[in-house]
Amino acid sequence: MSDPKQLAQVLSMADKALEKAALDLRSAHSAVQALKQQLTQLQNYRWDYVKQAQQQAGTTLQASHYQQYHHFIAKLDAAITQHIARVRQAEAAAQQRQTLWQQAHQRQQAIALLLEKNRTRAAALAEKRSQRELDEFALQQFVRRQR
């Protein structure tokens, strides 16, 4: 049987590790949400720019303006592609944090269960010892009365 104080310390350490893993997981999820929001803003900006350019399509555009428009759209598309990659990386990091949290949670639960089993076992042993002492005392009382 493990020392209950040592096991309680290990449980405390596991609790702290679980809290840190949960904090890291929340942080990773927040980063994913922020990146997704930025991506949506970038995509909306591109859409608005294209829509505005289409509205101006009826007017005469100089070749240089037309070229600048396509160049800018290409830059926006490249930025969107890069941002999508960043979102995917952040999602992968969040998934790793999820796995780490699950492992920390399982470890903490296992230690808590072991500690509870040890406490239950110790209580049962103490109860048996107490019952034996009471039985011994009762037997001694009986023997004294018989004399």
From TrEMBL:
One GO term of the biological process aspect: protein transport
Listed GO CC annotations: bacterial-type flagellum; plasma membrane
UniProtKB keywords: Bacterial flagellum biogenesis, Bacterial flagellum protein export, Cell membrane, Cell projection, Chemotaxis, Cilium, Coiled coil, Flagellum, Membrane, Protein transport, Transport
Coiled coil: 18-45
Compartmental location: Cell membrane
Any one GO molecular function term: cytoskeletal motor activity
UniProt KW Phosphoprotein keyword: no
Predominant subcellular localization, coarse grouping: membrane
InterPro entries in alphabetical order: Flag_assembly_chemotaxis_eff, Flag_FliJ_proteobac, Flagell_FliJ, FliJ
Family matches, as Pfam families: FliJ
Membrane topology label: Peripheral membrane protein
Family according to the record: Belongs to the FliJ family.
PANTHER family hit by this protein: FLAGELLAR FLIJ PROTEIN (PTHR38786:SF1)
NCBIfam families per UniProt: flagell_FliJ (TIGR02473)
Name of this protein: Flagellar FliJ protein
